[in-house]
Design goal:
Number of strands: 0
Helix content: 55-70%
Length: 79
């Protein structure tokens, strides 16, 4: 799966978790950019990503996720 395809799937997950059906994400997007991207939402986001892609991240992988690019890279490694 290409990075662009992963970003499109992630965009739908972000839209659901952040309750914003028009949200547009990009690889540089980080919690600094979204006031509502707090630790609780991050956990919900990770859970939704794991469910959607049928993968599991370990604690170290989650801790290294600083922006969408890191999330995409982690997904790529798992697929």
């Amino acid at each position: 799966m290409k990075r662009e395809e992963i970003v499109l799937r992630l965009q739908e997950i972000f839209r659901d978790i952040f309750a914003d059906k028009k949200m547009e994400i990009h690889e540089q997007l980080s919690p600094v950019d979204l006031e509502t991207w707090d630790s609780i939402r991050h956990i919900s986001l990770i859970e939704a990503i794991q469910d959607d892609f049928d993968i599991l991240f370990d604690f170290d992988e989650i801790a290294e996720m600083k922006d969408v690019s890191d999330i995409v890279s982690s997904i790529c490694k798992k697929l």
